[in-house]
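Quick question: who can interpret this fold?

. . .
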Amino acid sequence: MAELESQDLAEPVSPGETTKSGARPADRHGLLQHSREFLDFFWDIAKPEQETRLEATEKLLEYLRTRPKGSEMKYALKRLITGLGVGRETARPCYSLALAQLLQSFEDIPLCSILEQIKEKYDLQRVKKAMVRPALFAHLFGVLALFQSGRLVKDQEALMKSVKLLQVLAQHHNHLQEQPQKALVDILSEVPETTLKEILPKVLKADLGVVLSSPENLELFLLAQQKVPAKLEKLLGPVDLFSDENIPRLVTVLKMAAASVKKERKLPAVALDLLRLALQENKFPRFWNDVLEQGLLKKQFLPASFLCFRLLGAALPLLSKKQLQLVMQGDIIRHYGEHLVTAKLPDRFRFAPEMDEYVSAFLEGCQTDPEQQLAVLVAFSSITNQGHPVVPTFWRVVRFLSPRALKDYVAWLRDMFLQPNLDSLVDFSTSNQKKNQDASLHVPERAVFRLRKWIGLRLVSIVENSQVEKEETLVEEVARFCLFHSFFETKKPTAQIPETEQRLSFPLESRTREVVCSAFFRWAWAGGEGLRSPAESCDLLGDIQTCIEKSLEGKPRRTRSKAVDSQEPPWVEVLVEILLALLAQPSHLMRQVARSVFGHICSHLTPRALQLILDVLNPDKSQDEDDNVVVTDEEQPKSMSRDDSDSEEEEKEEEESDVEEESDEEARDGDVDQGFREQLMAVLQAGKALGGADSEDEQEEELGDEAMMALDQSLASLFAEQKLRIQAKKDEKSKLQKENVLRRDFQIRVLDLVEVLVTKQPENPLVLELLEPLLTIIRHSMRTSSSKQEQDLLHKTARIFTHHLCRARHYCHDVGNHVEALHAQLERLVQQAGRQADSSVALYYFNASLYLLRVLKGNTANALPLKTPKKQKASAKAKVPEATSCLDLKRVTPVYSSALSSFLSKRNSPLTVPMFLSLFCRHPVLCKSLLPIMIQHVTGPVRPRQQAQACLLLQKALSMGELRPCFEHSEWEQLIGQVLAKVTENLRTLGKAEGKSEQQRELSSLELLVTLLKTIHVQKLTVDLTTILGLLQGLQPSLQQSLQQGAHSAGSNRLYDLYWQAMKFLGVQRPKSEKKDTKGIPSDTQSPISMKRKKKGFLPETKKRKKRKPEDATEQDAKPAAPGGNQPPSSGKKKRRRTKATASAQSQVNEKPAAKNPAPSTLITSPSTPATTTTSPSTPAKTPKLQKKQQKLSQVNGATLTESAGEKHQKRLPKKGVSGKSPQPTLPRKKPRLSLANGSPSLLRSGAKKKVQLKKGVKP
């Protein structure tokens, strides 16, 4: 790369870079003007580390954004283009990606100019033989960079040039292989259908033999079959890919595709497209049996087998039950089982992890179809090697099963254990087993034993897997099943023991019982790990027994004689303390036991027992109390790995070295604690090393040897004590850190109890007491979520709060006497949401208030006098649920009114628009009460940003169907008229926005206006629209002027589209541009230089090739017309002339790229504006084509507006009001319209599309 870059630096500079005197500077590329930091970016881009490359690319873009027009941009483009063909193959994709990001960030850079620079730098006709391969890859990566920028499919000219270049590159198969064809397919898959119809005849030959010659051609055929089937049929005629004569060629193509992805280990796209085509044409059995099983699988080619396996996994979501049965009983699934058995060697590639991903994705995607889940899991469990299933007993995909599918799967396992159906299994034997095994081993009894052994281990692993959601009854059934068949035999069936009524088709052997017994007791023995000490076990079991007895005594049968000691705590509190003690142990089994036990007792929970749990979770209280977590010096449990112990030893060594370094630093530092300083001074004075007050008159005397030795011993002991004190502080700090880690882990385990409570007892009133403690944990963890434990605690708390509490289907319906407290809590939550510094935290508080609203609304008021009977009779039907509920609207409405006012008035409010939209959607009556505040903030002294937010809230609120039933017809019309008046006042300054916030206010106001007009039209309301119509007609010249000046092109285009949407509802149609006349007379703006160039590029008719007339005509239709009207394209000067004309036109535009500014195609001229415009200094210069187009648009639009808006519409307007129904019948019914609810379409895409249509010369 260094050699190529040095060659690049030695090249002559372009004429534009030379000085006026003609002398070349010593630094040809202006390297002295660039900093060393800027030049280092390009070296870092080519480094192998991905993080370094991405960081360098980002820094380069940031550097260029500050200098978009400087010499740095030219140098960056030249350097990146040079890097496309460097010698190191690993560096080429890096430069290609950097170039793509650069073109994506700076859209004013023409793509055609990049292609021209690449062709000029790496000319395939002039390049040396040794540089052919780098030059070819430079062209390929250059096209890929244009495609990855996202702009290629929008630029018709660059797209056509790229397609032709890829076709040229495809001829160099020795160097590039099939990469150009793959790039071509990827590009064409993104282009619109109209463009694909135009390009298809040029890239796909009308020969089925060519189509079936390579995977790329077949993939291109399938792409056309999917997107433009009519054009494909016109080109090739009717084609049946799955005919008898085409099947062998399909097999060959798939084999080639499998070989091409051998290193990538992925599924070729052509195989999946063939599968979809077979399903679409109802030819799936023929494709699966003839093409795959009887064709590709018989090739005995390992990549072909892996293609079949990947296609099997990818086909699972696409198949029906009948098709799934065909697939899971065929040769491919049997061959997959053989691969699993034979690929157990360390040096063999294993496909099992990849298939697990396919099956996991399928099971996770069809949670609502338990039958399909069961069918797939049973099918894979039925693949057996001489009776033993090939999938492991701990197959982890079962965690994605729904509860019903899991229950049915366990039932299938039990049935297969009792009565094995060997005929339903897809059984096989490997080649080695067939050669070496004795025929006596192939008996049903051996297969039954292997199957039952696997089933027993499978059942136990399902119960042990904590990630599998299972019911307690299922666990009990599995335990009883394993226990019974481990030790017992049925002599006589009895109904009291259901297991005795189960019959065995094959007798249960003793070795089978031993396997089941060992698996069962291996699971049950784990329960004793948490109880190590016999004394502790006895005490704990005694407490549990006492709790059980007291829970049974708590029945209503208790008499008065059995008095209960008031000082003795309730049994549930004792049991909660025991569970908390078990959770303090680092045992996963104890964690599962605690969850299971708490699920049984959570219905008896008392406020005091809940408070025991909340005290552990309280971050403020747990920081002060050290009794909850005790750090001991005992040995680590066996469950901890050696890596943890090694890491702790390394931390201790690091701490010791840190202590030594800190002690040395403190010894050298003078800032020591005062106690140590005083002790040091005392020792020195005692040894007479320091002179006292009387030493001034005495002569200094040297200390003797004994005195020096004593002084040394005193100083050594003093510093040793100081070192011990420093070490003690370090140990204390380390101990506190370990205690904090243990405390967080303990809190995470205690959250299991909270999760069990909110999932099993969502209607318990105690659940309401969890809101603020959980919010406290979230707020505290948001501030201190630096460690992994803090993040895990935050994520788990947020998941419980959001999914299991606020979004729960059931909630408390018996608040009792807590209505007043709940209202106070709701008010407190809303106020706290408005005081948060982070919007994410405020969202949790706001959602908590919505949950309380739901609870209060769902509870009926028995004695709460919310309204008088007269008001209840006069209230509307929509207010009946609130009138009979505990929700006090008079108290709640001011709370949210204050929050909404704060949101629409403060500069930085933590509240957001989605919060209030959620409130409006769930409680439309509250939305009705809050509408005046939103209407008030549409105009007035508030900031433009708040006005835009008010308009957005009003637009979404008025679009909700839940709000309309809260109003009567007259009230609704009055509300619409009031909002329309506010919007009309807000739109008087339309088109005069100076900042981004003001522009957003204009857009939001227009969107609100469109929503209002749509509501008026759909609901047939009678609202006066004359004022808004006159206002919009008067604003048209200002909008036209803003578009002509090119200010805020993106926002102006969106504003312009919304403007015409509103005018459309008012009965004024948007003018359409006429077809461009490519043979018109050139305008006066063409200089003699252009005429001279036209003569240079002129080709006489006698010199033209007659055979290329149709192709030339097609190319002329696809490309923009030349400035000279009917001048034919030249071979040498056309590109230069077009480039310079584009550059001269763009140089006067106000720094806006031509690709993003489709202003000439959307200009509108009012009747009072003359048709011809003069060029002012602020108006950009226009080419003859644009001037001619503008003149036509001005004439058409002027006539249209004069007739429709000036006369016809005024005749249709009534005198007192305008109905939204009258101007609408003239509109087309099924014409596509922009969606206001989902936002505007992509401006870049629409702009590029309009530009292409202008170049084609057709109507948009």
Remarks:
- Residues 806 and 851 are 6 Å apart (CA to CA).
- The two ends are 48 Å apart (CA to CA).
- Strands lie at 383-385, 388-389, 426-428, 1022-1023, 1218-1219.
